[in-house]
Amino acid sequence: MADIQIVEVAPRDGLQNERTLVSTADKAALVRRALDAGISRVEVTAFAHPERVPQMADAEAVMAEVRDDPRLRSIGLVLNRRGLDRAVAAGCHEATVVVVVSDGLAVRNQGADTAAQVAAWQAMADDARAAGLATTVILAAAFGCPFDGEVSIDRVLEVARGVLDGGPDELAIADTIGVGVPAQVRSIVAGLRTLDAGIPLRAHFHNTRNTGYANALAAVESGVTVLDASAGGIGGCPFAPGATGNIATEDLGYLLSRSGVETGVDLASIAATGTWISDLVGYPQAPAMLGRAGGFPG
């Protein structure tokens, strides 16, 4: 298997739905700790409406704290043109644009159905490129929707076709509510390859039903080269009852390393960060396991 790049998403997806508000200084420290552990691509923040996502209300301030670090390849999550403009002005290197595959979640999350979100992405694509931003489009709820239920692979591919027409630099699939299984991963990736054999693929998994790591390994075995993960395993989707968060960076790194796949991540360092950020947001113990059990061999 090829080497895998991990994108650290704790500063955005990890913190976004936590009840405890984290200071700008601590968010910047979280980004720097990820860089210290050898991770270069970091989803620093989301450019969303502060009333809807109060944890991300200081998006520009966080970017101002970290954007000059030469180690950082900064990613800003955007939902619309306003978000893209803010990401450009804040100095992000990349924008991840969200397109929700299911209309039920699309409307509740962004106030627009899937077709409108695809059209919005297509309208933004050229401007993002002109501004020098690399772009990823993430197909959210690609494995299931809390409102519409099952999401068929045909639906995923239909939406992906429209997204690919906009020419993203990378395409991502997200199991937003943590319902996916490896068979779905393999089918979706194979289907996407029939649409574009060369587009770099990224995957984002939640461990809500304890399948996130199995899905990550299936993605790697299917040819996905980039995986999202969150230090400590913090975060989760507000639409997923009992959500236990993203797959943990340290646990994913351990799984891949022991499977012969290199990530370049210092596992002891990122495990310490996972423990630190989990304590900061009020977890009695980090959801991640590596910080508890330690690596092997010791």
UniProtKB/TrEMBL annotation:
<dbReference type="InterPro" id="IPR043594">
    <property type="entry name" value="HMGL"/>
</dbReference>
<dbReference type="InterPro" id="IPR000891">
    <property type="entry name" value="PYR_CT"/>
</dbReference>
<dbReference type="GO" id="GO:0046951">
    <property type="term" value="P:ketone body biosynthetic process"/>
</dbReference>
<protein>
    <submittedName>
        <fullName>Hydroxymethylglutaryl-CoA lyase</fullName>
        <ecNumber>4.1.3.4</ecNumber>
    </submittedName>
</protein>
<dbReference type="GO" id="GO:0004419">
    <property type="term" value="F:hydroxymethylglutaryl-CoA lyase activity"/>
</dbReference>
<dbReference type="GO" id="GO:0006552">
    <property type="term" value="P:L-leucine catabolic process"/>
</dbReference>
<feature type="domain" description="Pyruvate carboxyltransferase">
    <location>
        <begin position="4"/>
        <end position="271"/>
    </location>
</feature>
<comment type="similarity">
    <text>Belongs to the HMG-CoA lyase family.</text>
</comment>
<dbReference type="Pfam" id="PF00682">
    <property type="entry name" value="HMGL-like"/>
</dbReference>
<keyword id="KW-0456">Lyase</keyword>
<keyword id="KW-0479">Metal-binding</keyword>
<dbReference type="InterPro" id="IPR013785">
    <property type="entry name" value="Aldolase_TIM"/>
</dbReference>
<dbReference type="GO" id="GO:0046872">
    <property type="term" value="F:metal ion binding"/>
</dbReference>
